[in-house]
Amino acid sequence: MAGRIASLLAFALSTFVATVSAAECSTPTSLPKFNNTKLPNPFLFNDGTHVRTKEDFTCRQKQMAALIQGYEAGSLPPRPPVVEPAFTRNGSTAVLNITTGFEDNKISFAPTMTFPEGTAPERGWPLLIAYSGLSIPVPDGIATLIFDNSAMGEQNDQSSRGVGLFFDLFGSNATASSMSAWVWGVSRIIDSLELTPKAGINLDKIAVTGCSRDGKGALMAGAFEPRIALTIPQESGSGGDTCWRLSKFEQDSGDVVQQATEIVMENVWFSVNFDNFVNDISVLPYDHHSLAALVAPRALISFENTDFEWLSPLSGFGCMTAAHTVFEALGIPDNHGFVQAGNHSHCDFPESQNADLFAFFDKFLLDEKNATTANIFTTNGLFNGTVWNASQWIDWETPRLL
Ligand code: MCU
């Protein structure tokens, strides 16, 4: 009875609370007057009004996605007219040869796939897309696909700007960063799998992973490609599951971490436009908790390593703590995990983290009924003496979105 009254009440409330219709959702790519030294509130629209419902939040996500592209990722082109896959399987391995682009300008790339033994489930195999190679263990029953992201958008150093297959198609002056080029490539892989039923992939059960620079990229893919069910960035550090503001704070506190001013000098993971903001990051109307918030309500678990100061350990923990409020507000805290430990080399996945990782695979890719991902949010707290104080950075109450 109480439950019925509560749901009637929720229904009544939701009919009175004004929601934002698709037509009203304005998505500018910049907010010139914005300035906030704290993490921007993900539950405020660009005009400062409150996000109250889940429907509001989908508009808010569109706003954050547009801002992230505007300030740091460059623009992500839509699906082009040509997507032509050719799938060749040989035993447990296969090649998915993808030709894509425009009638007069096409590129081709050919990810390799590995299939589990045995008969495929009725709806096909779940799939893990791994940037450049696998650096996490994969449970039985999941197919894997290796995506050569660096061929799609090079990432050697500054000279990689505008170089790679994506830029052969869209021009070396395209605003997209290498990470956006990779997202675009992942989307074409998924288009191709949709067009290739004989590949036998369950399109509702696709995960993405990558480590370090490729971990930054995996988070971007999960944020911008809604067909990804599970996102697993590994030791992504700055520019990944850390926040620009928090990394700067760590650096100002005396730690040697990577921050925005350095990252834009090192590589082409961000658009040229981002150079204009790295010295004054409080003008960014988002931070990377907002990037992680784009993954919701889909699942996200990120792994970090406190042995490497450069990865900005406080920033990773603080940033994902802020992102977690979004999953809480949507009533799905178990869809977001964070595991931060030490005592292992960079990108060397310690066995002690298998249970947490496998819980996410079990629940979100393998549909195991008994799988639970509750309370997988842990850190060893080794932040090189710098202190995380949530109220210094997070000035919002987490709403319960209707
Ligand atoms: C953690 O990712 C990067 C880092 O941002 C770079 O500064 C460093 O040079 O390379 C890391 C990486 O990708 O290592 C494989």
From TrEMBL:
Q: What class of enzyme is it?
A: hydrolase
Q: Which segment of the chain is annotated as a signal peptide?
A: 1-22
Taxonomy, superkingdom: Eukaryota
The Swiss-Prot or TrEMBL record annotates one GO molecular function as: carboxylic ester hydrolase activity
Query: Could you give one GO CC term from the UniProt record?
Result: extracellular region
Domain 4-O-methyl-glucuronoyl methylesterase-like, first and last residues per copy: 101-331
Keywords attached to this entry:
Hydrolase, Lignin degradation, Secreted, Serine esterase, Signal
What does the UniProt entry say about where the protein is found?
Answer: Secreted
Main localization of the protein?
A: secreted
* Any Pfam family: GCE_fung
Q: What is its EC number?
A: 3.1.1.117
The alphabetized list of GO BP terms reads: lignin catabolic process
Q: Which reaction does it catalyse?
A: a 4-O-methyl-alpha-D-glucuronosyl ester derivative + H2O = 4-O-methyl-alpha-D-glucuronate derivative + an alcohol + H(+)
Similarity section = Belongs to the carbohydrate esterase 15 (CE15) family.
* Name this polypeptide is given: (4-O-methyl)-D-glucuronate--lignin esterase
The species is: Schizopora paradoxa
